[in-house]
Amino acid sequence: MITPPFQLPDLILASASPRRRDLLNKVGLTFSIVPSAIDESTVSTESPAGYVQKLSEAKAADIAQRYPKSWILGADTIVFINGNILGKPTSPDEALKMLRQLSGATHKVLTGYCLMNRTYNRSFSEIIETEVEFKDLAEREIEWYIETGEPFDKAGGYAIQGTGTFLVKRISGSFTNVVGLPLCEVIEAFKNALVYI
After folding, report:
1. In whole angstroms, what is the distance from residue 63 CA to residue 71 CA?
2. Which one from 39, 76, 93, 153 is the annotated catalytic residue?
3. Cα separation of 193 and 4, whole Å?
4. What are the residue ranges spanned by the domains of the chain?
5. Looking at CB atoms within 10 Å, which of 122, 136, 183, 190 has the fewest?
6. pLDDT tens digits for 1-48?
7. 24 vs 14: CA distance, rounded Å
């Protein structure tokens, strides 16, 4: 297998997200997975951008304490609309409320990511924002989508890369950001990190 020119040595993804794992796999990266155990409820939510940045940095720092020689990638993604952060729905009723709110409207998807290495005393973090416009959804469309089971482990209750692609009328910004990791920007951070190794 050919090693990508932006492969960091001893890379650890501080997330159990299968979507982030798949995105990194698609560009041929080799990495380990060590999910962070950070209690997300302890992070203040004074602003959506501040929240995802603090949480991604906290996740990376949590794993970096245990693996100081490794490069740690922490990330967090939220859906934000009308002053509300939409997390992952835990019931059909909650998914129904989220999808009704998103129907016919434009919302923002924000991902904060942090790349950290304790040994090199290096840390790169950034917040990426994508606008997503939903089509007007009929009630039966929402009910059917919930019945697929796809909304339940996704921020905002949908997966743009899955069946939920039919919900989306337009996006402005990074597609992979909506999936869960702004891959272009993350790879640039990897390249910058390699300069300092």
Report:
1. 10
2. 76
3. 14
4. 11-195
5. 136
6. 688 999 999 999 999 999 999 999 999 999 999 999 888 777 777 799
7. 13
Q: Two tokens at 186?
A: 């993350």
Angle between helices 139-147 and 92-102 (to 10 degrees): 140
Beta bridge partners of 80: 85, 108
Q: Is the domain defined by 11-195 classed in CATH 3.90.950.10?
A: yes
The CA–CA distances, whole Å, from 176 to 77, 108, 140, 186 equal 11, 13, 28, 11
Q: What is the pTM of this model?
A: 0.93
Q: What's the token pair of residue 77?
A: 């993604």
Query: What SS3 class is residue 83?
Result: coil
Query: Is residue 76 flagged as an active site residue?
Result: yes
CA distance 119 to 67: 9
